[in-house]
Design a protein that fits this description.
binds flavin-adenine dinucleotide, D-Amino Acid Oxidase, Chain A, domain 2, 394 residues, single chain, alpha+beta, 8-stranded mixed sheet, 2 domains, globular
Length: 394
């Protein structure tokens, strides 16, 4: 690194905040974060912010790092990130859905057995037949007559997402990181495959390390450096509902296999409902985050309320009290793209959902690469070079 040019992070969501925290702890060089709006006010603020052990081996190992870091944060919190354990109950309502759930559990258990005690995925996961469900968990409101199968993962809970990002930000500030709010990066300069500067609100400054942690804007920022990222988008609408009669008990995070709807009861008794369409990368598209409006699509709302009322029929109808729409980024293999790109000096941290859970390990990978020139243990699973026709400068 040339003298005093430092590290420049684009985006002040949870991912940029974690990168700033990890870099700040390991370097005396200046670290700057540019956020075009308010810190942690875009995807991070809209997130349901669950943390749980599901995903592939790379995600499990990343989550272990994250769990340890968050345990440390929670033991002496600075920003009230909260944490509520809920467990995750995935239910099906068709025979086909039940078979799919059974297959998922069988495949996972097979992987576990093959790993012969070396797997990181050791959390208990079981397929529970409908007749056994009310003997296995306290679920007074769930109608087991419509349920054909279920899988319960106990080690799942949720954070307050904005406050969790602020937790990183407070700690990064202690390490001397400077956060610039309401400050947009408007261009990047690349000469002969090497990054040489960035424009901040139109004013050019020299730089030799820029990291894009711009959430759904990542493809747009990467294009400024001439990098075409394999990242697409799906919409992630969230409806906040108030039951007419309060639900007196906690609920697990309930997801419905067939429709992709999921619900969670907040500590204040409100219920959040979202939809995660089962389709993958191929069905995703690219949205302009500036023009996506915050209303939950009405047809999706009526389908969601139908699913909700069939699963929890004794709960009195709900009033809609709030709605918002986030953007979920999506990559071809569902894992994030993290680290060096083919442009020397330009790195990315682009997510395929799960940014709340994978942000800690992502910050560490970026610090390993940029400070120690170490590709990191996650290189094969996270580098953009894992996709055919993409290379990085390593
Ligand atoms: C409804 C919903 C539910 C979710 N549920 C979960 C969950 O349960 N668990 C989980 O782990 N993940 C979940 N996610 C995903 C998770 O929230 C995201 O992966 C994560 O918040 C992404 O963080 P980020 O920092 O990459 O993006 P963001 O929070 O969007 O931050 C990027 C920032 O970059 C800024 N920016 C963009 N361009 C520029 C520029 N040119 N100059 C300066 N600043 C710029 C933006 O203003 C923005 O603040 C969910 C997402 C949604 C939408």
């Amino acid at each position: 690194m040339s003298e005093n040019r430092g590290y420049h992070i684009i985006g002040g969501g949870i991912v940029g905040a974690s990168i700033a925290y990890h870099l700040g702890r390991r370097t005396d060089e200046p670290v700057h974060v540019y956020e075009k709006g308010r810190l942690a006010s875009e995807t991070t603020r809209k997130s349901l912010a669950f943390f749980g052990f599901y995903g592939d081996e790379t995600q499990y190992r990343m989550k272990q790092y994250g769990m340890e870091l968050y345990n440390g944060f929670l033991s002496s919190p600075r920003a009230d990130p909260g944490y509520v354990t809920t467990g995750l109950l995935n239910v099906s309502t068709t025979e086909e859905g039940a078979r799919a759930l059974q297959e998922e559990v069988a495949e996972r258990n097979e992987r576990l057995a093959d790993a012969k005690g070396t797997a990181v995925d050791t959390s208990p996961v079981d397929f529970i037949a409908p007749d056994d469900l009310k003997r296995a968990a306290v679920l007074p409101f769930l109608d087991t007559d419509v349920v054909t199968g279920s899988v319960f993962r106990p080690q799942v809970g949720y954070f307050r997402p904005r406050e969790l990002a602020l937790e990183f930000i407070e700690r990064a500030r202690d390490e001397g990181v400077v956060f610039h709010e309401h400050t947009a990066v408007t261009d990047l300069t690349v000469e002969d495959g090497v990054l040489s500067g960035l424009s901040v609100d139109g004013e050019w400054r020299p730089a030799d390390e820029v990291i894009s942690a711009a959430g759904p804007w990542n493809p747009r920022v990467a294009a400024m450096a001439g990098v075409d990222l394999p990242v697409k988008h799906t919409l992630a609408p969230v409806l906040e509902l108030k039951p007419k009669e309060p639900i007196p008990y906690t609920l697990p995070w309930i997801t419905h296999r067939e429709s992709g709807f999921s619900i969670r009861r907040n500590a204040d008794g409100r219920v959040l409902m979202t939809n995660h369409p089962p389709g993958g990368y191929e069905e995703a598209t690219e949205y302009d985050p500036e023009t996506v409006d915050d209303s939950f699509p009405p047809d999706l709302q009526s389908r969601g309320l139908e699913v909700l009322e069939s699963l929890l029929p004794t709960v009195e109808t709900f009033d809609v009290v709030d709605e918002r729409v986030g953007i979920r980024s999506s990559t071809p293999d569902k894992n994030p793209i993290v680290g060096w790109t083919r442009v020397d000096g330009f790195s990315v941290a682009a997510f395929s959902t799960s940014g709340i859970q994978l942000a800690p390990a992502t910050g560490n990978v970026i610090a390993d690469q940029l400070i120690d020139d170490d590709p990191s243990e996650f290189y094969e699973g996270l580098s953009v070079s894992r996709f055919e026709s993409y290379v990085d400068h390593k």
